[in-house]
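Action item from last week, closing it out:
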Amino acid sequence: MAFFSSNKKEEKTQNQESILSIIAQGMQVQGDLIIEGDVRIEGLIKGNVYCKARLVIGSQGKIIGKVDSEFATISGTIDGILIIRDTLQLTETAKIYGDIITDKMSVQAGAIFSGNCKMGEEAKEIIEKNYPLDSIPKSFL
């Protein structure tokens, strides 16, 4: 029994260490965010978000603007285009009002999505043509 408890503590510590930035509930940011590492958003962002690693939007988090990230797990709300270069996960509380362009996606029952979705090779072509890495602010790279 103790063996399993120990692993859970280690796993929790590793997950906490991988999140480098946090926009806490009650915080509001107006303007674009450029994030080099992982980020968790529980507050409100009015602007574009560029995340080079993993973006996590908690159930209270909301973004009004374009999101461009390598990976994302969404439990909150996005009002704008969502460009995820690898894998997108929508949890049961996610609300997406805008288009999704991603390579891979998983959606849990209860998630809300209103928009168009492009996936796989078609999404990769759209990203390369319309959202190349050189269009991302230089400090993002």
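Closing note: The longest helix spans residues 2-18.
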